[in-house]
């Protein structure tokens, strides 16, 4: 964390607060635009909101990212990540509008991943394992594993965005762990951009600013997942590594645990992995608690998982961290199944 203390001394707070104000304006702008274009998430049997809500969060995030390029000095790789993310946004927007098939959406996601790979944002290894005194490298399978990691993250974020504030709360708090896990602050302003967007989105998504509620929509959750995955891979990359792979998996473990549980659970019950249901962890807890309390519980749970992973990595090893991650998933799977049977 010492580097973060140095970063705090160097940070341009005036620029940050101006940017924060700009993001609020972008939210207001796109909420009004989406209203005029009649782009709403409509209530139905599965969706619990009572009135149509504009799904403008994705457009706000995309413009926020583009504006941040002119305010902060990002690496060329991160600038390129933002450019490619435009494909993900429009694929998600078409999904919001019901104008694209699942196959074509995932195809566009894969194409975007391949472009990122050849621009240097890729997973080449899972780090140094002390027990065998060797770096575990993927070699020629690096491109497949990179695509797999990004596609999983995009869709895991999309699955987790089921109730107000759920996804953005965990993303916002996970930024602290990005700083905790990192050994330099080369991506710090990019992290602050994601944090500021997530924080401002919560004001609108929770309806704190009366009359201006919005959702992320598929365009927003997919875009946020793609950007987050790209940043994770860039941070854990071999050439520009700032976070060890054995730590990077502990940023948003709850999102991955619940996604993997849902996929396995649906396949075991002969259901399509893409068909929506109410077996998500937020739906399960929402049977007993109100939405805001559910968000607080799940955010706290993710923070707890992240802290466990961090200290286990520090006191043991990278391979131990990965083994613990796997064991914790099986425990999560077991206990969630118990909740589903109640």
Describe the structure.
- It is a single chain.
- The chain has 342 residues and is mainly alpha-helical.
- It has one domain (2-245).
- It contains 14 helices and four strands.
- The protein has a two-stranded antiparallel ribbon with strand order 1-2. Strands 3-4 form a two-stranded antiparallel sheet.
- It starts with a helix and ends with a helix.
- The model has no long low-confidence stretch (mean pLDDT 91).
The gist of it:
This protein is mainly alpha-helical and 342 residues long. Helix content is 68%, strand content 4%.
Give the topology, please.
Blueprint: H1 2-10, H2 13-36, E1 40-41, E2 53-54, H3 57-71, H4 76-96, H5 102-118, E3 125-129, E4 134-137, H6 142-160, H7 166-181, H8 188-205, H9 217-236, H10 245-248, H11 253-268, H12 281-286, H13 291-315, H14 318-341
Antiparallel strand pairs: 1-2, 3-4
Helix pairs in contact: 2-3, 2-8, 3-4, 3-8, 3-9, 4-5, 4-9, 5-6, 6-9, 6-11, 7-8, 7-13, 11-14, 13-14
